[in-house]
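User: My collaborator sent over this chain with a note saying "see what the structure looks like." That's all I know about it. Can you take a look?
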Amino acid sequence: MAVPITIFCLATILLDEVGFAIPLVGLFTLLAIGGLVPFLTRPAPLLFSPGRLYALSIFAFILARSFINLFTNVELVEVGNGINSSSITKALAVVALSIWVSNILYSISSPKRLISFDAKLRLRFPVPKYLTNIVLFGAISAGSYFLLQSWVASQLLSSLDYFTAVDDPIFHEHIKYFLVSKSLMIIWIALSMKKRKIFLGASILFIFSVGFLFIGLRGYFISYFFLFLYFYNEKHEVKFFPLLVGALLLLYGSSFILEYRLGFKLFDNVFDMITSPIYQQGASFEVVFGAVTFPDEVSKCISMYEFFTKAKPFGDCVDLARGVPFVEGGFASSFFAEGYYTSLFFLILISAFLGTAVRFCDELSRISTTSTNRGESFVAAFILFLIIPNLVYFARSSVFDFLFKLIASCSIVFLFYVVNYYNSSRLSNLVSKS
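Assistant: Without extra context I'll predict from the sequence alone. Here is the result:
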């Protein structure tokens, strides 16, 4: 079934490119959502497995509007040129094609052949406890400062227009302190080499990420919320009903904070306050629409060199191409938009890698949760700690963001492994000589 659907999506895209437009928005919405089913239903030890987080990212950031559109008439693309059912269908076909290619590789991958490290080896560097405490203190201090400055920045929104505030570089300047906090937290966990510190680190970062809510960056908050939820799920069973209630409260709370920041009422009732954040997060579909509908205009705005070197914001060029008058960019970027901009073949290739990578992460999750080898469990959990926020956010970030972070994280762990092996070999030689 997966292969025929993939071919059908590809044929629809190619037919549109030669002038044969197909207006089937509802059908391709169902095809795209249907491609997520294997990621949701594959048996996993945790409710929030990497495969399910992958599906959640696409649904929340890309397909939320089209899903709502199945039940009520909402605009999938609010502003810009070229908005019609045929162009929206093509954009959905691009998303569906990528999902189904990832689906196929996810289903046939055998990551157990890739994960064969001997994690009994542990770091043997004598790390003084006071040093790890200093690193932890630095992480908490930087995160607390970020949280405080986010609250201070949010106060500006009650007296200024939102876009006027965010156009000021000072408004977002303090975000670097969250990055400092996260970096120090990673170092603290790496020095301790204890898995329980990973859950503590995820909990602390989740608390600090509330600062993103204060300044309107809900996507980043969601990423660290699910980082916390994943490792909480390793320790405790997460039941569906309390989770549903928590999700509704989170949606309501984010709308309440938005109204409080702006200083005036945006929503008519509680139902609007709950559904509006879902609709707003789905706005990332607009950048996919722009990249797919106006590829020539986007290419004229940003060259491949500028794209790969980040010399020019990709999202700004998509906005200009589709006639959206945002000064500083509207909906940032998207994995699917950037993949299609590079080429349709590249999108298929990178989607295949993505499917294998998600399956690899599912295997890491199984090891982290079920392995009785403490070293092996720590290594798997440490990689997941590094990459889960990127996985949750991947659908609306750079095409290379998640995959690069996964490769970099595995490389760091491999370096630890080499150092472990070298130190263990030296220790064994010394013991044998004595």
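A starting point for your reply to your collaborator: The chain has one domain: 2-433.
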